[in-house]
Specification:
D-Amino Acid Oxidase, Chain A, domain 2, single chain, 2 domains, 8-stranded mixed β-sheet, alpha+beta, 24% helix, 21 strands, 8 helices
Length: 370
C-alpha cells in the first residue's frame, strides 16, 4: 500500500485494509472523509470513532458561524467555510443549517479593529440596536452596533450524523471502537483497535478534538504546543422568537444565540480554565463558572441572569497562534493531524477538512472519472 489507489471497496484485499483511515467522527472527521472522496472518487475510507458519530465536541457545539477571523489565515478559512456551507445547504435544504441575523456590538473607538477582523463587505453599521430575549439590552455608553451578513447556525450533532449517513455507502464506520495503537511505517500505518482487529491504511487522519493526550498519539501531539481549555455556555430559559438573531459582544468575546431547535437561548462566554482533561467526569457547571458567566451577561442583559441556572460544559484544543493545525506528525508523513480549532470547530471545519484532504490525497481525478 504505497499510495492511494482509488480502487473502491469491491477491490480491497480485506475490510481491514483501506486507503485512508480517519480517527474521530466529529464534524472535522466526517467532512474530511467527504473531502477525500470528492478529491479521489473510489478511494477506500474508514472512520474510527471511540463513541458514536458526533458524540464528542460536535454534540456540545454551539454551531454559530459568522464571517470573522483574528488573523488573515483564519479569515481565509472562514470565507471558505461560509461558501462551503452555503453550497451544502443548497444541495440539501433539509440539512439543519439555519440562516441567522447577527449583530455585533463593540466600542465605537474600536470600529477599525472590528473591520479588520471581519470579512470585507460583511459589516454594516446600524442605528437599530438588537432586542435581547427579555427586553432591550443595556449597552455601555459609546457602544456601537454592526449588522453582519453571512451568519448562520447549525445543530452540529444532527448535521454530522446526516453527513455520516450520506457517507456510509462508500465509507466504513467503526463506532464504539477505540484506536489503541498507531504504528507508522514508510508505506502504511497500522491501527490497533480495541476490538482486537488491526486496520491498515496508506494514510491516517487524526481528528481527535480535545483528546490530545490519548496514549495512541500523544507522543506526536505533545510537540505541537497545543492546550485544552474548558468551554462553558449557559442556557437562558426563554423561548426564542422566529425572527430573533445572534448578538455578539466583540470586546467580551461572548455571544447570545437563539437555539431555535432546542427552544432556549445560549450565552457563551470565555472561560479561562486551561489544561483540562478531555477524559473524566468534570465537565459540568460549577458555581465559579456560573458566577463568571452571569457577571458578563449582567453587563448587558441583567433581566436574563435569573433565567440562567443550567448550561453545557466541555473543552476544546487551542493552538499557540490561534490558527488551526493541519499537518503531518509522524516521521513518514503518513499520519496527518487536523484540529485545534480554538473553539471554532464547526465554523472552520470545511476549510480544515479541505486542507487535510489535500495532504491525504495529493492527487485528484475529475469528477466524471468512473
Amino acid at each position: 500500500m504505497g499510495g492511494l489507489t482509488g480502487t473502491g471497496p469491491a477491490e480491497r484485499t480485506a475490510d481491514t485494509q483501506v486507503d485512508v483511515a480517519v480517527v474521530g467522527a466529529g464534524i472535522v472527521g466526517c467532512l474530511t472523509a467527504r473531502a477525500v472522496l470528492s478529491r479521489l472518487p473510489g478511494v477506500s475510507v474508514a472512520v474510527v470513532e471511540r463513541d458514536a458519530v458526533a458524540a464528542g465536541a460536535s454534540r456540545r457545539s454551539a454551531g454559530l458561524h459568522f464571517p470573522r477571523g483574528s488573523s488573515e489565515p483564519v479569515r481565509r478559512m472562514a470565507s471558505f467555510s461560509e461558501r462551503y456551507y452555503h453550497a451544502l445547504k443548497q444541495e440539501d435544504d433539509r440539512l439543519p443549517i439555519r440562516a441567522l441575523d447577527t449583530t455585533v456590538l463593540t466600542a465605537t473607538t474600536r470600529a477599525h479593529e472590528l473591520a479588520e477582523r471581519y470579512l470585507p463587505g460583511t459589516l454594516h453599521r446600524t442605528d437599530r440596536l438588537p432586542s435581547g430575549p427579555a427586553g432591550r439590552l443595556r449597552l455601555p455608553e459609546g457602544t456601537g452596533a454592526w449588522r453582519v451578513t453571512g451568519g448562520q447556525y447549525a445543530d452540529v450533532a444532527a448535521l454530522t450524523q446526516r453527513l455520516a449517513a450520506q457517507l456510509r455507502p462508500a465509507v466504513r464506520f467503526y463506532e464504539g471502537t477505540r484506536t489503541v495503537t498507531i504504528d507508522s511505517g514508510p508505506d502504511h500505518v497500522a491501527l490497533g483497535l480495541s476490538s482486537g482487529a488491526t486496520l491498515t491504511a496508506a494514510k491516517v487522519l487524526l481528528a481527535p478534538g480535545p483528546w490530545l493526550a490519548d496514549p495512541a498519539w500523544r507522543t506526536w501531539t505533545s510537540g505541537l504546543g497545543l492546550r485544552v481549555k474548558k468551554v462553558v455556555a449557559l442556557h437562558v430559559e426563554r423561548q426564542p422568537r422566529p425572527t430573533d438573531g445572534a448578538i455578539v459582544f466583540e470586546d467580551e468575546d461572548a455571544f447570545l444565540l437563539p437555539v431555535h431547535h432546542r427552544g432556549h437561548w445560549l450565552f457563551s462566554y470565555t472561560c479561562e480554565q486551561w489544561d483540562v482533561p478531555a477524559e473524566g467526569t468534570d465537565h459540568y457547571l460549577t458555581p465559579v463558572e456560573l458566577a463568571e458567566a452571569r457577571s458578563v451577561l449582567d453587563r448587558f442583559a441583567p433581566d436574563l441572569v435569573p433565567l440562567c441556572t443550567t448550561g453545557r460544559v466541555f473543552c476544546d484544543a487551542y493552538s499557540p497562534d490561534r490558527v488551526p493545525v493541519v499537518g503531518p506528525v509522524d516521521d513518514f508523513q503518513n499520519v496527518i493531524f487536523a484540529g485545534a480549532a480554538n473553539g471554532s470547530g464547526y465554523r472552520l471545519a470545511p476549510a480544515i477538512a479541505a486542507d487535510a484532504a489535500r495532504l491525504l490525497c495529493p492527487t485528484t481525478v475529475p469528477r466524471s472519472h468512473p
